[in-house]
Amino acid sequence: MEQLDVSGGFDVHDYRHGLKLLKQDSGTMTLANRDGFACPACGEPFERLFVSERRTNSFGDPGTAFCLARADDSLLVLTH
C-alpha cells in the first residue's frame, strides 16, 4: 500500500492513477481513494481526500474518523 507523501509538498497529479476527482472549485478539491493509498498521518487507508489551498475552511460533521496533514502550500483532510 503506497502512502501519500507530503514531505516536499503535495501534488495530486503524482497520485492521479488512484484518485478520482469528485468535486473541484477555486482552491479546493475532493477526491475518492480508488487505489487504497495510505494516509500520511496514520498510515491506514482513507476513503476521501479534501485538499485546500485556502487559508480558512469550514467543515460540517464528517461522521467518521479523519486525519489532517499539512503540505507546503495546502491542507489535506483525509476521512476514514
TrEMBL record:
Q: Which keywords appear in this protein's UniProt record, sorted alphabetically?
A: Cell projection, Cilium, Flagellum
- Give the source's domain of life in one word: Archaea
Protein name as annotated: Flagella cluster protein
